[in-house]
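Our preliminary data section would be incomplete without showing what the modeling component actually yields. Below, a chain of 270 amino acids is followed by its predicted structure, encoded as tokens that our downstream tools consume directly.
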Amino acid sequence: MVFLAAACSSSDSDPGSGDGAQQSAPGDAQGSASASPSPTVRAAAYAKLPQACKVLSGKVLGELVPEGVKSAKEGTSSDLSTRASCSWSSLDNNGVKGSQYRWLNVSLLRFESDVSRGTGEEQAQEFYQKQVRDAQAVPDAKNTKAEPVAGTGDEATVVRYDLKKKEGAFKQQTVVARVENVVVTLDYNGAGLAGDRTPDANALTKSAEKAAKEAVAAVATANGADGGAGGGSAPSASSSPSASKSPGKPASPSDSASASASASESAAKG
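Predicted structure:
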């Protein structure tokens, strides 16, 4: 009887026996889960922007702003690799016949791929669509028309309209183009002041589209043959679409200076 009780006691107290010895440590499953790979996102195609005041040739500037080829004014930017702009103004005084006014702005915005925001191209697509919508919704604009532009980046749209200001009747053209992860917005407007004739909207649109194509080509050239994939840094909050201004409002002789200073933020108005 004593021997049997001792044998039973010894068997019950064995820490290595029973189902408990076959169970895994509580932390093993969690450790396996934490070892899973981190999410990734495809790198952006373009890693930098060209100098905004050099994206257009002297020939094109001579056509769009004949009296202001050397009037380039760079917009302010905290990071020229993600946001850049430049504006030009031209006033051709015809004496008692009045004068012809032109204002041109080119704005470039580059998006870098980010796990939380998506690829640079996806972000650029969203911003491109927003810019087009904003250009079509300018207050007091008349005769607004939007048309696709062929041969300019991956997608491009020109929005044109008339806008009456105290200085005269302005003809506004806004070309929004996207190439990979970069959005280029070109604003070009003209007016006949002090009694001079109102410029032809079709001619202004043709010139704006030509300039936009040249600006888009400058983006690819700045990044080399391979586009400089993946070399940029993550975008800051200031480069997100929500931080940009609505495009489309044309500058007048009285406000072109302040408009060009703010052009670094929005693609359309800059």
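Residues 52-262 form one domain. The chain has six helices and seven strands. Preliminary results of this kind motivate Aim 1 of the renewal.
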